[in-house]
Design brief:
This protein is α+β, with helices and mostly antiparallel strands. The chain is 32% helix and 20% strand. The termini are far apart.
């Protein structure tokens, strides 16, 4: 029998820890069930306005934290504070 992959609870705990530490302010995931068959996609919102280099560092930190549990693609949503309207596609 194959190893069980972590589900939403594990990913949620990792991301909530990063929120508590002030690394990110919010997150959304592509989870539609208890365990994804494919990699999960996570969209994170930084706690403050960030430069490209800082956004890359935050993305890398989140990917590393999640990699211990499951593969994930992480995108940094830098629209916070933007004057243009944002459309959510999830």
């Amino acid at each position: 029998m194959g190893a069980r992959r972590p589900g939403w609870g594990t990913v949620n705990a990792v991301l909530n820890r990063l929120v508590a530490e002030g690394v990110i302010a919010a997150f959304r995931t592509s989870f539609s069930g208890p365990r994804p068959e494919l990699d999960v996609h996570v969209i994170i919102t930084p706690a403050e306005s960030v430069t490209d280099a800082k956004a890359d560092a935050i993305r890398s930190r989140v990917e590393t934290a999640l990699a211990e549990h499951m593969p994930a693609t992480v995108t940094v949503d830098r629209s916070r504070g933007s004057s243009r309207p944002q459309v959510c596609t999830f």
